[in-house]
Amino acid sequence: MSKQRSSALGRAWSFWMSVPLWLQIFVGMVLGISVGVVLGEQATYLKPIGTLFVNTIKMLIVPLVFCSLIVGVTSMEDTAKMGRIGFKSFAFYLCTTAIAISLGLVVGYVIQPGAGVPLLQHDAVQTVKEAPSVMQTLIDIVPTNPVAALASGQILQVIVFAVALGIALVLIGDHGKPAVKVFESLAEAMYKLTDMVMKLAPYGVFGLMAWVAGEYGIEMLWPLIKVIIAVYLGCIIHVLGFYSIVLRVFAKLNPLQFFKGISNAMAVAFTTSSSAGTLPASMKCASEYLGVNKKISSFVLPLGTTINMDGTALYQGVTALFVAQAFGIDLTWVDYLTIILTATLASIGTAGVPGAGLVMLTLVLSTVGLPLEGVALIAGIDRILDMARTVVNVSGDLVATTVIAKSEDELDVEHYNADMAQSAVFAEQNAAIEHAAAKNAKA
Fold it and tell me: Which one, of 301, 320, 297, lies nearest residue 415 by Cα?
């Protein structure tokens, strides 16, 4: 009897492991929500499962960004090409961020999420860390102590130091090759570790979603349901509408194929609410399913994790209008332009971690003279909004990477258009080619 049970469990486990990762994550999310609703507050006991998964992802972020950026910079021995890609990335991210917040303002104006909000039920004052000024953000991007920046996880400073170190290694020629080989080995190890960690995603997602559903409950969503609808509607339009147009017009690529290729990263982004935490999954999708050369993805994706905040910017537009409408304050066209400019520039220094949008929101509200108490109205549902805006952030990173790779002739179009199974074959072939090239270089 026990042998039959073991055999049945073995078959079930084999079947489960044959299910695509994105579907495993989706199942974990649905089960987590169901368990959270049934258990209520007791579901918070499952939170440590999700916390452990998030911690393992956070463990990868700094070394992955640091090593992959150095490899990305040093692999482009043509400094002119490196500068060109950097300029394209920066311009792309700032333009799409400005468009995202404009869309958020339009959606907020049409839906009027703040109309009729019972403010007397929201008299608690939320204490939020003060957002830094734009000038201070620009000053802080250069680390005074690179080791301290690495230890404390200051991603923007880590990026600046990694890019500078990579450029220096390229400029010193043969003397830098031993160090480059070390970073290439470390980067490959981080990619493998990422693959190992991602296998834990369905279980981490289950714990996170059970906690969210149990902590907030369904009934808590109703007073602010219009805000949630507005943010999610804006995010859907931006991802499926605007990004599809960008892929069609600027890269002549099939958007449906793109969204199939990044489904795993989108699922991780939705459940972890962390752009930085989703970076390992994004890099895996870019190379294995989209056919982007690692020279491009290892440079553009880490950069986008820090300066590309399309979803956060869109959220700022909707929530700023929500606060204005809730407090009965009319905004002028100058206020709208100020919100667009402030949110676009502030996105450069916004950390890609859960909850960072609230800090950025205080900056936007204070810039146009809206009451900061409005943050308390959003704080209760911020986690739910964070899920949607993180999907937009991550999708935007991957759109930029794909479009830039296509413009630089670093995108394998046949790989891009392949189905998921064939993509895995292409990925294995590319890995074998890279391994052979590295072996020949050593010889």
Answer: 297
Contacts of 405 (CB under 8 A, 6+ apart): 292, 293, 296, 297, 300, 411
pLDDT along the chain (443 residues), means of 10: 68 76 77 86 86 79 80 71 82 90 92 67 42 64 87 78 87 88 87 79 83 69 76 95 95 93 90 82 90 87 82 89 84 84 65 56 76 67 83 94 92 83 56 52 49
pTM for this one? 0.69
d(CA 300, CA 188): 17
Q: CB atoms < 10 A from the CB of 116, how many? A: 9
- The candidate with the shortest Cα–Cα distance to 415, out of 432, 427, 402, is 427
- The DSSP secondary-structure symbol of 360 reads H
Question: Between vectors from CA 228 to CA 131 and to CA 110, what angle results, nearest 5°?
Answer: 95
SS3 at position 295: helix
C-alpha span between 300 and 290 (Å, rounded): 14
Count of CB atoms within 10 A of residue 128's CB?
Answer: 15
